[in-house]
Structure formats: C-alpha cells, structure tokens
C-alpha cells in the first residue's frame, strides 16, 4: 500500500515516540524496542521492553502497551487502535495483536530471526484467524534498525572487554 505524504508524516511522528520508548529501554540495559498505542490520533499507551529488569519472558513492549491500553480504555478489544512498534512483532506479540483486535500495526525494522509479520512467517495475514489487522512496515526502518544494531554491537564490545579483564 502506497502512503500519502500526510499519512507517512503522521506515522513517522508516532514512530518517533515509539523510538523514544526504545531509548528508555536501552538506558535500562534492555533491548531497545518501544511500542505505543494510538486511538483517535492520541497516544493512549507507551511501553518498552522490560524482560531483563522484570525477569519475565512476556515483558515485550507490544504486550505491555496492549495491556496498558486495555486498562486505560477499560476494554480488551482495541478495534480502533494503531500499534506502533520499532521492531517487527514476534509470534507471541502477533498473537496478542490478533487476540486484542488491534486495527493497524505499524512497525519500523524487520526482524529476520523472529519476525512474525512477514520476515519468518506472517501471522497477521493468516486468513484462518478471526482478525487480520492492517500492516504498515518500514516506517523509520533505518533509524529503528540502527538503534538495535548499535545496542548489540556495544553489548558485544562490553562482553569482549569483560572477558579480557
């Protein structure tokens, strides 16, 4: 789907907020992935990865944002919501997106190792499920991808230095 300039700029504006969330994760030593949920052009939920800090495998940015939006909006169906996430969702997050009925998913960087919105598999376009969200990919992909690449590069450098000590 080709975006208009206005649509692209709107998606970039919201993705920048998700990138800020990713930066918060990075400052805490978490993998820098951020997610926000927008309804009626208003951010209703913001989250970032908290797996390392919380010691919970399910503490992905998308799941935390969905849970927060459910609580704030006081409903489990997010049929009018757009989820912005800096990295293509994994299978677990794609499942939560389907089950919570998120209307649109906008993501930045592709995930060739675990991406479940087209890279490894595509759960969001699986016709056997009862919900198929619209998907818009590649919004600020270079910026989102660079944040992850730099994080892992720095992590490898730190590990290398610690093994030499």
Give an overview of the whole structure.
With 165 residues, the chain is an alpha/beta fold. The protein has one domain: 3-Layer(aba) Sandwich (Cytidine Deaminase, domain 2). It is built from five helices and five strands; from the N terminus they run H-E-E-H-H-E-H-E-E-H. It has a five-stranded mixed β-sheet.
What is the percentage of strand-forming residues?
15-25%
State the helix count: 5
Q: Low-confidence segments, ≥5 residues, pLDDT <50?
A: none
Regarding quaternary structure, what we see is: single chain
Count structural domains: 1
Shape: globular
Main pleated sheet: 5 strands, mixed
Architecture, CATH level 2?
3-Layer(aba) Sandwich
Mean pLDDT: 95
Which sequence of strands runs across the widest sheet?
Answer: 2-1-3-4-5
Radius of gyration: 16 Å
Organism: Globicatella sulfidifaciens DSM 15739
Active site: 62
Enzyme class: hydrolase
Protein name: tRNA-specific adenosine deaminase
Name the features:
single chain, 165 residues, alpha/beta, Cytidine Deaminase, domain 2, 5-stranded mixed beta sheet, zinc
Briefly, what is this?
It catalyses: adenosine(34) in tRNA + H2O + H(+) = inosine(34) in tRNA + NH4(+). The protein has 165 residues and is of the alpha/beta class.
How are the SSEs placed, and which strands pair?
Blueprint: H1 5-27, E1 34-39, E2 42-48, H2 51-54, H3 61-73, E3 81-87, H4 91-99, E4 104-109, E5 134-137, H5 141-164
Helix pairs in contact: 1-5
């Amino acid at each position: 789907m080709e975006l208009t300039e206005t649509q692209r700029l709107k998606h970039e504006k919201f993705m920048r907020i998700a990138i800020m969330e990713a930066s918060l994760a990075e400052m805490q030593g978490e993998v820098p992935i951020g997610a926000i949920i927008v309804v009626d052009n208003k951010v209703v939920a913001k989250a970032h990865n908290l797996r390392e800090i919380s010691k919970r495998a399910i503490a992905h940015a998308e799941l935390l944002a969905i849970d927060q939006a459910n609580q704030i909006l006081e409903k489990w169906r997010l049929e009018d919501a757009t989820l912005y996430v800096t990295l293509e969702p994994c299978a677990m997050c794609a499942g939560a997106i389907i089950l919570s009925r998120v209307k649109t998913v906008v993501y930045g960087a592709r995930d060739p190792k675990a991406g479940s919105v087209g890279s490894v598999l595509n759960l969001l376009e699986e016709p056997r499920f009862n919900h198929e969200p619209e998907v818009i990919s590649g919004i600020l992909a270079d910026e989102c991808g660079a944040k992850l690449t730099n994080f892992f590069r720095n992590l490898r450098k730190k590990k290398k230095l610690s093994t030499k000590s």
